[in-house]
Structure formats: C-alpha cells, structure tokens
C-alpha cells in the first residue's frame, strides 16, 4: 500500500482536515517518514513511513508524553527514528500542542484508550491496511509511563515500555501486570528512579521483565539527535519485540546494552512470547 501526499490530504470531508505530513530528516533507517494529524483521531499525532514498499506490515506503538503533555511532537525525534525502521506510532496530543493529557493522579488514560479504539477499528482497513493490530506496544516517558501502565490489560496491548517512570505510590496495578514489561531508567539522578526500581521488583515473579539504567537523569537523551542512547534502545526494543528481529535482542540479552553504558537486570525472560519475524526493512523491498 502506498501513502502518497495526495491520499494523506484527502480528508476534506472530515471535521478536522488532515494536514500534509511533516517529513522527517536525519533518521538512520531506510524508510522515508513523517508525522501528521489524522482527522479520525483528534488530539493525537501519527508517525509512519511515507510510501513504504508494497506489502509492508507495520507494527504499532502508542506513546504517552512526559509531563502529561498534549504536544504530540515532544518526542518526535525518537518516534520518527523508529518509524524509519517500520514502526507506526500514535503519540498523545496534536502536532500543535495544547492541554495536558490525563494527569499524573488520574486512574485513567483516555487518550491512550482512544488510540487503542482507533486501532481496533482502522488497522488493516483501507489506507491503513498495512497496520498490524496483533503487534501493539504501549509505552511512555514519565507521566506517559504512568498512563501506559493503566492500559496494560487492554487486549490489543502485547507489551509495555516504561521510560523514566514509576508509580507515585505503591500501586495494585504493578502487582497485577502479567505482560512483558521493559523499564528504561536514567540512573539515581532520575527523579523516577526509586519508583521505577520499586515497581520492577514488585512485578509478579512470572512476568517477563527487563530493566536498564543509564546514568543520564530524568530527561535522559531525548533531546539529542534521534534521541541518543534512549532512542536507540527504544528502536531496538520495538524491532525485537514487535518486528521479531532476533538480531536486535542482542542489545538486551547479550551485552549490547551494557556495552552502551546501561546497567541491566532481567527476570523470567524465558517466558517472553516468540514473535514471528517481519522481513527486515531494506530499501526497495517489503519490510
């Protein structure tokens, strides 16, 4: 399926006109990417490959921003980088920014829930025929990580990514999580470090889990080109756990993260569900 600029602009009959995609620059993957506002999904920003090769299957990430921000481009560097390797992402908030999302003290994640409802209705249909709703991850940074934890039970969510985050208080939610959870923390200077460490330790013993600490603080490397080492870790996590690329698992299981400066802990990883590989993204081929 091709996503031409013409198709992306063909929402004239919608209440909210879909904007032309803003094209990314400087990503390391083989695919041209961009972000835009989808009229059928207000208050969100979509990141995806533009004109991907025919037959491309795109796994899906829903992303919650730090600071409960309604700015859908706040973490655009890492979402564009992941898109260049074949990941379709939905970030909370519009490209123009705006109000906050759910708030840190809420027990709901309304924008993530809306994104999941949209995926259920639209993935595999029409211009989004290439979206694979059997491969969905939920993740977020800081407040966005808290929002992510609240949707872990949704049937579409296969795994969870918690970045620079942890529950504010001891939570019954973390005690119940049975799906694979990956924690990416910024070391002891990360304001969420203690909470993330506590949550990781109180997960059920049989829950597959991985935790990495890189001593860069709460804002980590998100502002760097392609989000630096945190962006690299996220891209490899999605490539492994959504696209089934076993080569990317080396970062997590065979010392790649440690070589990059992360301190790593993991448990019950033998229980990780096996992911059928999607062909690796290469220029001129499906991926």
Walk me through what this model shows:
- This is Alpha/beta-hydrolase.
- InterPro entries: AB_hydrolase_fold (IPR029058).
- Keywords: Signal.
- The chain has a 10-stranded mixed β-sheet, with helices on both faces.
- The chain has 9 helices and 10 strands.
- Helix 6 links the parallel strand 8 and strand 9.
- The chain has 287 residues and is of the alpha/beta class.
- 25% of the residues lie in helices and 20% in strands.
- Helix 2 packs across helix 7 and helix 7 crosses helix 8.
- The protein has one domain: Rossmann fold, CATH 3.40.50.1820.
| CATH class label | Alpha Beta
Strand arrangement across the biggest beta sheet: 1-2-3-5-4-6-7-8-9-10
Number of strands: 10
Give the overall silhouette: globular
Q: Structural class given helices, strands, pairing? A: alpha/beta
Instruction: Examine the secondary-structure arrangement and name the CATH architecture.
Output: 3-Layer(aba) Sandwich
Within the CATH hierarchy, at the fold level, what is the topology?
A: Rossmann fold
Q: Helices and strands, in N-to-C order?
A: HEEEEHEHEHEHEHEHHHE
Protein name: Alpha/beta-hydrolase
Organism: Microthyrium microscopicum
Signal peptide: 1-17
InterPro entries: AB_hydrolase_fold
């Amino acid at each position: 399926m091709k996503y031409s600029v013409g198709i992306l602009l063909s929402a004239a009959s919608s209440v909210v006109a879909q904007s032309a995609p803003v094209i990314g620059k400087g990503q390391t993957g083989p695919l041209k990417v961009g972000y835009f506002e989808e009229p059928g999904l207000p208050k969100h920003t979509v990141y995806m490959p533009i004109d991907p090769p025919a037959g491309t299957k795109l796994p899906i990430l829903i992303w919650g921003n730090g600071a409960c921000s309604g700015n859908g481009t706040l973490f655009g560097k890492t979402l564009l980088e992941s898109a260049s390797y074949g990941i379709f992402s939905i970030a909370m908030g519009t490209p123009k920014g705006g109000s906050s999302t759910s708030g840190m003290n809420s027990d709901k994640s309304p924008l993530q829930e809306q994104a999941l409802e949209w995926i259920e209705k639209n993935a595999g249909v029409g211009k989004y025929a290439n979206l694979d709703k059997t491969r969905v991850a939920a993740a977020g940074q800081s407040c966005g990580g808290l929002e992510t934890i609240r949707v872990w039970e949704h049937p579409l969510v296969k795994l969870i990514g918690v970045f620079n985050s942890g529950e504010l208080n001891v939570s019954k939610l973390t005690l119940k999580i049975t799906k694979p959870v990956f924690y990416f923390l910024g070391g002891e200077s990360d304001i969420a470090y203690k909470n993330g460490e506590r949550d990781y330790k109180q997960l059920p013993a049989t829950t597959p889990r991985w935790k990495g600490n890189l001593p860069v603080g709460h804002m980590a490397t998100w502002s760097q080109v392609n989000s630096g080492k945190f962006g690299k870790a996220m891209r490899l996590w999605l490539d492994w756990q959504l696209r089934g690329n076993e080569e990317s698992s080396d970062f997590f299981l065979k010392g790649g993260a440690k070589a990059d400066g992360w301190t790593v802990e993991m448990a019950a990883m033998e229980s990780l569900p096996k992911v059928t590989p999607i062909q690796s993204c290469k220029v001129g081929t499906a991926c």
